[in-house]
Design brief:
alpha+beta; three-stranded mixed beta sheet; tt1808, chain A; 3 helices; 14 strands; seven-stranded mixed beta sheet
């Protein structure tokens, strides 16, 4: 939902959003408000975060953050992805508030209220900003998609389904049974 289509917001305005349980994002200068995520969404976030954090414990190559965690990217976009990974080489983008710059990985877990935004405008924003990896977890189809940024933008997604093992390119050796992600 666009809160006020005539107002032009700055990416940094996400730092001033009310603490009311909703998620506030600024995309191309427009303010978007999303309700708190549902139980299945939170389950997927916890499971993915758990596996990646466990991996990072054995391979300290960066840091993973879970929402709410704000990112101010170049231009007029300030977002709050579900999970964010910042490699050790990019730690300078981290601030006490969140991140100011482009993380290595962004994960969005689709919700009814964010489905089209996560697959549309946010995908294009992450691609334009230079987010190297973008994962989309879809509780409806019980899939996880992995996209990697190339010279011509994101290539077609690699889609993992129940019965598959997700082996993300960014984390060599990590293996997640896709069935474990869903309730």
């Amino acid at each position: 939902m666009v809160a006020n289509p005539r107002a032009r917001f700055l990416a940094e305005d996400i730092w001033d959003a009310p603490d009311d349980g909703n998620r506030y994002e600024v995309i191309d200068g427009e303010l978007y408000v999303s309700p708190p995520p549902n139980r299945e969404h939170q389950h997927v976030s916890f499971e993915l975060g758990y596996h990646v954090r466990h991996y990072l414990g054995a391979h300290p190559i960066g840091t993973m953050y879970a929402a709410p965690f704000g990112i101010v990217m170049p231009g007029f976009s300030g977002v709050q992805p579900d999970l964010v990974f910042v490699s050790n080489e990019r730690q300078e983008i981290l601030t006490d508030q969140g991140a100011k710059g482009v993380p290595d990985l962004v994960v969005e877990i689709l919700s009814p209220s964010t489905r089209s935004r996560d697959r549309g405008i946010k995908l294009r924003q992450y691609e334009a900003a230079g987010v190297r990896y973008y994962w989309i977890a879809d509780p409806r189809s019980r899939t996880i998609e992995e996209r990697e940024l190339g010279e011509d933008g994101y290539g077609p997604p690699t889609i993992y389904r129940v019965g598959d093992v997700f082996r993300p390119v960014i984390f060599p050796g990590l293996a997640i049974e896709v069935a474990r992600l869903w309730l």
